[in-house]
Every structure is written in C-alpha cells, then in structure tokens.
Amino acid sequence: MKVLEKVGIALARWHLREVGERPFHLLQALRSVRRILVGLPPGDISREELRMLTDSLSTKHVTLLCVERPPVPGVRWEVWTLTSQDWTLWRLPKKKLLQRLRTSGYDLAVDLHLPFFLPSAYLCGASGASLRVSVDPEAPFPLFNVRYSTKATSLRERCLALVDFFQSLREGSVL
User: Which residue ranges form the domains of the chain, and what is each CATH number?
Assistant: First the structure.
C-alpha cells in the first residue's frame, strides 16, 4: 500500500470516527432500504445482475458510483461517473462531491470493490447510510459496518453473492 493511501485511510478514519458508533438493527435496516448507493469498480457486470441486487432490497432509488469505468449500458438509475479528478492527493473525495453525496439521503451503501478502493469506500462511509456493506473483509472500520466475505472473484459473482445474502437476511434464513 502506498504512503499516500495509508495517510488517506488514517484521515478517513478520523473524519468518519463518529459514523461507526451509531447502533443499528441489521434486519430492520435492510427492510427499510429505499435509497441505495452502489460503488461499482471496473469489471464485467450486466444491468440484470445489478437489478437483481436492487430488487432483492425493494429500493425506490439507486445511484451507481462508476469509478474509473464507463456506466453500465441500459441502466435508468442515477449514475455518477468518477475519475481521479474527483479526489484529492490523499485519495479522498473532494468537497463538492461530498456535499452532493450528503444531500442524497441514502439508507444503504454497497461497495463492490475488491480490494476496497479508498475513494469509493470513503463515499460509502460519508453517505449517511445506516448500513454500509463491503465485500472486502479487510475494509477499514468505520467506513463500513458490514463486511461480507465471499469466495467470489469476479464482480458479477460478488454482486450475485450479495443478492443471495440480502435475500436470505430478509427471509430470516441467516439469523
């Protein structure tokens, strides 16, 4: 890990230190999800797989954070295309992007990056979502309060594994 990224992670933890202290009930949080933020890394994923993820949660609004990748074709959701111009030297999002994010009112933030990617992870942590999920078991707290570990290696497999996880939680078969 590069020195700038280590400093960025330390800054992110300090900036978001109070975020991780809020208690939540996992099943209740999942059942009340209406607005979802999805951090989407480069990789192969289809509109149908993303729709399965959002349909498993009965969401009303979806924002895709397409980080250094083109948007998924045919998606009618809100799409934010992010490049290296959107974050600072420390790999933290710039103020303008954070202000836009904080006014959006997300209930759930999911980051599909593996390994975690600091700009996307920070946006999930700063989103205000009560439930912040990463597929990287090494993702730093408090950026995420749920780290879902899967053996899936591709973006498509990680997305589908989360679909199964969310559906089993909502049905009560995991708890």
Answer: 3-171 (3.40.50.2000)
